[in-house]
UniProtKB/TrEMBL annotation, chains A, B, C, D:
Gene3D superfamilies: 3.40.50.450. GO terms for cellular component: cytosol. PANTHER family: CYTOKININ RIBOSIDE 5'-MONOPHOSPHATE PHOSPHORIBOHYDROLASE, LYSINE DECARBOXYLASE-LIKE PROTEIN. SUPFAM superfamilies: MCP/YpsA-like (SSF102405). It comes from Pleodorina starrii. It comes from the Eukaryota. This is Cytochrome. It holds the Pfam family LDcluster4. Coiled coil: none annotated.
Length: 178, 178, 178, 178
């Protein structure tokens, strides 16, 4: 079998979660990030709903011919983004945040709210690397206090992609050695 | 966006579950079924592990150029089948059986054990159609006693595919009307 | 610490699941069963909602001074039975059926529907003993075809209690030996 | 039926999670907190394992005659604390963190690690009040940036109990009005 494509998770607030910044900036960043992820040949995984960062990242990835996976919280696909190719219907509510964390080789948080914070924390608990893009300084300081070795901060989409590339390469090297 | 490809689930015993019949028959059927599912342009979803019916169905689908999704029970991908393109790592243990049921538009059970029985029952609970292929008569009678309108019995792979085709067409027609 | 009280699970249809028999018979049996479970000093675990077998078993247990645990599927306690002392709010939907199965030392099914079938199957998958009370013959034959050593059939509440007592004693003996 | 006893959750690092402070301080605080929770007639809910804050809080509660609920991540009770009266075996891995958050009326975090951070974030996502006790300043600033109205900081056990009392009273008043 040919090697499996890496899965990169993009997490971030839907509209209802954003408390500290206008959502538009995150939506724009997520769209560009999704596009870049697809251009690099990686699969995109998001929370799959038709709003906010999840939706924007998927739209970006589809615009560049990528494949998108959406891990939905509800028991049906009523609120799935049109830009999700593969809807996984979990029915788990917020417990699905852990499926997002475990299924992504690297997680990028674009903006921050309670749901995104849960996903980042669950990723760290599972020893997965996380990249914070456009999150408040409080988030950066907090997550780095939990585990500085796993938490990376990116200033822009290009910086986030550079981190993803390096982290995937490190993972591949570690697996080749094992 | 172009229409999403339907997801067909194939469930069945890993080695440890089979109690009533030799596993080889189910493995052969699952491989052929996976192949046919891919040939029809549908996505294949299984439990994702590297054994029994899950593995065989994925291998069959890959041999026909299909795309395979594996919903894994464990917290990592150590036991994923080589023939899974998209591993979803749930960490949920057997609670992932409900993710299998909800994420499949139609579920085909090839053989029967406790895990497969749980997946069929959870599919019926969610009002999803199920096709039983090569299951013991006790299973057919029981599941039809639960919900005759949702439970179909197929004598062979061709019969199962005929059922899948009709059920997906009915689903599409119902959605177009809604 | 004094020894922990055993947890006995009682599962069975809410109204919407019953397809083959009038619900009243099961409600009466569940109420008596809950009462007997409490009288023996065991904790009662159910799906926790305010309908059908779950509700009746809890009411029975409370009438005899017992303690009741309800494992709720939804994200809040809006539909909890008044007779549940300890509501566990899972938000997992039907994936909570596996929490019911794992948390019970012995599971008694009173009547049968898709949800109850899932709970019985998940219990067998986890190697837990199950007692079938007032289920259709198709259910008895099917589950015994899956694992005859774990599936017991009771003709009435007294028979079910006799089975529970023997199974709990066997579990305790096995644990003492280990 | 008499009114149900409120459930207060106490979350905090097991040994493996502590990165910023010695664990002993948290263990001592958790034990005293558990004792106070039991003295007020509330039920205690923790992650249920036999280590760190979970274990200590349960021991404290039992020393004051309380009742303790443990929501275990694994598929069996092998690592349950001796001081848990009611082990709920979820088999969900870290997805059980959301069961902890949803099932508690108020959540107290004693110390902080990735798992505790996930539980606090999931509680906020579900609009549940949280009290931070002996957490690093970065944690306080971050969670208050997410939702200042739900996040309370306590300097000591007495302060935490005062918050719990006020939050439970407010909840009861809101429910009486609804």
């Amino acid at each position: 079998m040919p090697p499996r494509k890496p899965i990169v998770g993009v997490m971030g607030p839907g509209k209802t979660e954003v408390r500290t910044e206008p959502v538009d900036k995150h939506v724009d960043l997520a769209m560009e990030l999704g596009k870049q992820i697809a251009s690099h040949g990686w699969l995109l995984l998001t929370g799959g709903r038709n709003l906010g960062v999840m939706d924007a990242a998927c739209r970006g990835a589809k615009s560049a011919g990528g494949t998108t996976i959406g891990i939905l919280p509800g028991p049906d696909a009523l609120d799935v983004s049109d830009a999700v190719d593969i809807p996984i219907i979990t029915g788990l509510g917020s417990a699905r945040d852990n499926v997002n964390a475990l299924s992504s080789s690297v997680l990028v948080a674009v903006g921050m709210g309670p749901g995104t914070a849960a996903e980042v924390a669950l990723a760290l608990k599972a020893r997965k690397p996380v990249i914070l893009l456009a999150t408040q300084p409080e988030a950066e300081k907090f997550f780095q206090s939990l585990d500085a070795s796993l938490v990376h901060v990116a200033a822009d989409v290009e910086g986030a992609i550079t981190h993803v590339k390096a982290l995937l390469a490190a993972k591949e090297a570690a697996e080749a050695e094992a």
